[in-house]
Amino acid sequence: xxxxxxxxxxxxxxxxxxxxxxxxxxxxxxxxxxxxxxxxxxxxxxxxxxxxxxxxxxxxxxxxxxxxxxxxxxxxxxxxxxxxxxxxxxxxxxxxxxxxxxxxxxxxxxxxxxxxxxxxxxxxxxxxxxxxxxxxxxxxxxxxxxxxxxxxxxxxxxxxxxxxxxxxxxxxxxxxxxxxxxxxxxxxxxxxx
Length: 193
Hints:
alpha+beta; Nucleotide Exchange Factor Grpe, Chain A, domain 2; 3-stranded antiparallel beta sheet; 2 helices; elongated
C-alpha cells in the first residue's frame, strides 16, 4: 500500500516507498522527472532486449530438442529394420535346407510319408514366419535377368531366342523384405547364339 503525506512546507514533495519498505523523498521537479523517465526507458529497452534474447534461445533449444527427438526415432526404426534383416539373413540358409529336403523327398520314390508331412508342416511354419516379416521369395524362373534381383553364376546355351537373357535355372532363391533386397537369387541365364 502506497502512502502519500502532504508536507505543509512543500507541495512538490511526495513520499514513495523504497524497495526495503522505507520512504524516500522524491523531488518531482521537471528535470528529475525527465531523467527518471529516461532511466526507465533505458531499463525497459534493456529488459526487452534480454527478453528477446531469452525467447530466441528458448526457441532454438526447443527446435534442437524436437529435431533430436525426431532423429532418434528415425535411427531407432532404422536399427530395428537392420536387426530384422540380419535375423532374416541368418534364417535363409534354413529355408534353403528345407526347400532342398522337400524337393529331394518328393523326387525319391517311397520314403516315410509321415516324415515328409512333418517336414512340409515345419516348412510351412517357416514360410509363415517370413511372411509375417513381409519377406517374400523372388520369383526368378522364366523371368528376364534383372541384375538388381538376380546374381548370374553362369550361362547356359538355349535354342529358343525368347529365352535369351532369361533365368533358366534357379540355384538359390532370393528374398526381399518389401522393396528391400535381402539376398539376390543365384541363377543361370540362357544365352542364344
